[in-house]
């Protein structure tokens, strides 16, 4: 059977003949459309004496569609997907553009359009992660994550957002009996704000209030989100399925959380005006554990490394250790302090640390100049009319008589329409400068757009001020044709063309003619050809720093990477974290803050599938099944520089991406898992030199109870990290089979300068049984350059278990003679 070629696409063909509904009169408002299980057609409840006639009409129309396709595409290959006959008379068909053109020229055909289904960011990341297949395993999106409560320690939530409504589905939605949280009631968070979806909401601000920096007007003494960040992260993990993303009047698709039927509990401990304090965060974590959440998601990190003998001994990490003891899976963002080594700000082995990667959705915009030069840019904007070039007018060349650049050095930023001559700008493209003031929030794109509208401009072109170096600009919504040129180099190209095209009076040097013209393509349509995933430049990197002296901990951080760049998700109605999305229902954000809730949602699906999994088992399922390649089969790349990151990249190592890029479907069927207990973590902490009094202070437990202390490398983690390999070392790992009986073989790639052997190399393991693996490592050279390898465990039933190997310092006693 031949495959469809890349240019084939789905088109919707509408015929001129009236559909069935026209024969039965207008639809009554009390009739309900019910979707067939086997098709996309709508069945309207017609009077009994006409229903058979309607069915006959539908069959007849389908035959007419088939006949038309056979006649027009005689002998050619095509695939009809649906016949529509109740609400429209037409069909959906997979054809080439040339075949679609043939159909459009038939007199029976009213319209032929490319399938307008759009997939973007959070509207797209479920597809990119393969979640529709994973949801099927859980009974579909309507039950995905059912019975699992995810607690969010963040900036609160906007309870009015449709992503958090409990009536989005007719599927039963009881509050889990193990959850006992409450909802605070305040003026901003009135009674009824919580429901069966949003099952708990509290706020914690005692530390901030004590310091005298809490502003109740801005920060809201309630669970209500005045920032936007918390609303965004909650919807990434567990927002309802199929919520329309409409921003700046344009529909960007339908959003869904990773685990759309999970419940949400909010513990607000961060605030717009000052951030947060550990005391409030720990109180929030503690309350979440008391309430009975299953997962805690923290898109927060400390502002500095904790002082003391080890980074693990800080209040937040120790509170999360207690949460893990209670069976709660803890997810934390790695931090946005990359790409330098040891920049990770989530430290402990009991916390699942998530870095940020791109996904394959990309919005691209461009401007075509009158000299046929095309400049790429950003901006979720409509384009100018196709085939029409518009005159370019720089804001500084269109000042009214009372304004000069001398009087207002920022006038080129287009923040005040009263400064400009409307007669010059009307109907043209206004050129504005984008300076550091936009980065600082002193000037805004929204205000520049308002200026352009007030002056009746056709659109706006922003060029980058040369002093804004290395700044990465997210796509921002523009309600009119426009573009932001994101680099000073391309901005110079625009300005050179503009200035060289001006016609000036020879004597006065005044401009007498604006001859530069351009058109804007628009940036509202996404494309999915981007090589992804890719570790983003800002994503914090390992190795994990054990202390403030930056000694290397033998713990792999980050644990993995997940989508974190250009993520669409819900936004608070008063959210101010991104001024460009103020007043919108959705926002596009980037950061490890966006990556962590992706994993929190996927962890909920694993918890639903394996209710008895410990937190470490969930972590193992995510790590051992992570992907090592991008969508085209190449290595996952990591950006290495803040400026021009795509020009400074190389293959990612475990210190960039941990075990790899999260794989949603494989994580639900891991085969083997590595399990660690609370006692294992205590044995690890007690093994740190001088830690006994600190452990006692934080946990109330004496280290003498833990006679057999262990190093980080000896924790039963799904990775092996060795800070110093002094000649040789033996590491043991223990796996449990959570699938059916299976035979596994072991293979490996040794790190440079290290020889590796794993015993046994082949084993049979029954369901529920445990197998110990011994890993023998020998240094074959002496150096301090980190080298990486990997152990693969391959089952004959298709399970693949990946274990990254990282060896930092190697000391060999081999002696060579000349």
Automatic annotation (TrEMBL):
Q: InterPro entries given for it?
A: Peptidase_S8/S53_dom, Peptidase_S8/S53_dom_sf, Peptidase_S8_Asp-AS, Peptidase_S8_Ser-AS, Peptidase_S8_subtilisin-rel, Peptidases_S8_3, S8pro/Inhibitor_I9, S8pro/Inhibitor_I9_sf
**The organism sits in which domain of life?**
Eukaryota
Q: Could you name the Gene Ontology cellular component terms for this entry?
A: extracellular region
Catalytic residues, chain numbering: 154 (charge relay system), 229 (charge relay system), 593 (charge relay system)
Pfam families in the record: fn3_6, Inhibitor_I9, Peptidase_S8
Write out the GO biological process terms. proteolysis; response to symbiotic bacterium
**Residues annotated as domain Peptidase S8/S53:** 145-633
Q: Could you tell me the keywords of this UniProt record? A: Glycoprotein, Hydrolase, Protease, Secreted, Serine protease, Signal
Q: Which family does it belong to?
A: Belongs to the peptidase S8 family.
Name recorded for this polypeptide: Peptidase S8/S53 domain-containing protein
What organism is the protein native to? Fagus sylvatica
């Amino acid at each position: 059977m031949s495959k469809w070629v890349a240019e084939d696409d789905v088109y919707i063909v509408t015929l001129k003949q009236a559909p069935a509904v026209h024969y039965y009169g207008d639809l009554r408002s009390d009739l309900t459309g019910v979707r067939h299980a086997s098709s996309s057609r709508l069945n309207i409840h017609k009077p009994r004496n006409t229903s058979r006639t309607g069915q006959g009409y539908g069959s007849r129309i389908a035959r007419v569609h088939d006949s038309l396709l056979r006649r027009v595409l005689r002998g050619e290959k095509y695939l009809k997907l649906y016949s529509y006959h109740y609400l429209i008379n037409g069909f959906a068909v997979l054809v080439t553009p040339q075949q679609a053109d043939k159909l459009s020229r038939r007199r029976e055909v009213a319209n032929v359009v490319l399938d307008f289904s759009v997939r973007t960011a959070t509207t797209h990341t479920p597809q990119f992660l393969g979640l529709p297949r994973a949801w099927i395993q859980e009974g579909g999106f309507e039950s995905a994550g059912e019975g699992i409560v995810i607690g969010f320690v963040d900036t609160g939530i906007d309870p009015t957002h449709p992503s958090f409504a409990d009536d989005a589905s007719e599927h039963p939605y009881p509050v889990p009996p193990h959850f006992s949280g409450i909802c605070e009631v305040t003026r901003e968070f009135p009674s009824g704000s919580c429901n069966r979806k949003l099952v708990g909401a509290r706020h914690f601000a005692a530390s901030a209030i004590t310091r005298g920096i809490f502003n109740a007007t801005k920060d809201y003494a309630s669970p209500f989100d005045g920032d936007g960040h918390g609303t965004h992260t909650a919807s990434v993990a567990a927002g309802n399925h199929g919520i329309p993303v409409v921003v700046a009047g344009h529909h960007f698709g339908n959003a869904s959380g990773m685990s759309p039927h999970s419940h949400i509990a909010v513990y607000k401990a961060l605030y717009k005006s000052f951030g947060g304090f550990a005391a409030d965060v720990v109180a929030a974590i503690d309350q979440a554990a008391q309430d009975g959440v299953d997962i805690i998601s923290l898109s927060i990190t400390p502002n500095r490394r904790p002082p003391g003998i080890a980074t693990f001994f800080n209040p937040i990490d120790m509170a999360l250790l207690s949460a893990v003891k209670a069976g709660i899976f803890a997810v934390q963002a790695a931090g946005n302090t990359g790409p330098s080594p040891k920049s990770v700000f989530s430290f402990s082995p009991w916390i699942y640390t998530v870095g940020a990667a791109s996904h394959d959705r990309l919005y691209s915009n461009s401007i075509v100049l009158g000299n046929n030069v095309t400049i790429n840019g950003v901006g979720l904007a409509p384009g100018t009319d196709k085939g029409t070039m518009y005159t370019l007018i720089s804001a500084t060349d269109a000042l009214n008589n009372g304004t000069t650049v001398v009087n207002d050095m920022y006038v080129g930023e287009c923040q005040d329409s009263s400064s400009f001559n409307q007669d010059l700008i009307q109907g043209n493209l206004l050129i504005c400068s984008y300076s550091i003031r936009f980065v600082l929030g002193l000037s805004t794109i929204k205000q520049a757009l308002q200026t352009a509208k007030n002056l009746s401009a056709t659109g706006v072109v922003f060029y980058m001020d040369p002093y804004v170096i290395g700044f990465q600009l997210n796509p921002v919504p523009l309600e009119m044709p426009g573009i932001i040129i994101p680099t000073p180099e391309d901005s110079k190209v625009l300005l050179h063309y503009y200035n060289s095209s001006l016609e000036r009076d020879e004597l006065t040097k005044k401009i007498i003619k604006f001859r530069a013209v351009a058109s804007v393509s628009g940036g509202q349509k996404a494309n999915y050809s981007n090589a992804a995933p890719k570790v983003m430049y800002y994503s914090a990197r390992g190795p994990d720093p054990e202390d403030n002296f930056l000694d290397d901990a033998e713990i792999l951080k980050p644990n993995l990477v997940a989508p974190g760049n250009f993520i669409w998700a819900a936004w608070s109605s008063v959210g101010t974290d991104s001024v460009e999305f103020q007043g919108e229902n959705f926002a596009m954000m980037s950061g490890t803050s966006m990556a962590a809730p992706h994993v929190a949602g996927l962890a909920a699906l694993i918890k639903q599938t394996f209710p008895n999994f410990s937190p470490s088992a969930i972590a193992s399922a995510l790590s051992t099944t992570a992907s090592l390649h991008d969508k085209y089969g190449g290595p996952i790349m990591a950006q290495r520089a803040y400026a021009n990151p795509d020009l400074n990249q190389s293959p990612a190592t475990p210190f960039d991406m941990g075990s790899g890029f999260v794989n949603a479907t494989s994580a639900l069927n891991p085969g083997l898992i590595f399990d660690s207990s609370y006692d294992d973590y205590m044995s690890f902490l007690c093994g740190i030199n001088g830690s006994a009094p600190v452990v006692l202070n934080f946990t109330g437990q004496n280290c003498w109870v833990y006679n057999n202390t262990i190093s980080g490398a000896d924790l039963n983690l799904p990775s092996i990290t060795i800070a110093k390999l002094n000649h040789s070392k033996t590491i043991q790992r223990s796996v449990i089979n959570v699938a059916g009986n299976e035979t596994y073989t072991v293979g490996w790639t040794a790190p440079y300068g290290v020889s590796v052997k794993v015993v046994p190399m082949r084993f049979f393991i029954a369901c529920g049984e445990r197998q110990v693996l011994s890993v023998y490592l020998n240094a074959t050279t002496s150096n301090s350059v980190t080298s990486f390898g990997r152990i693969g465990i391959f089952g004959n039933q298709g399970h693949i278990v990946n274990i990254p190997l990282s060896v930092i310092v190697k000391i060999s006693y081999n002696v060579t003679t000349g």
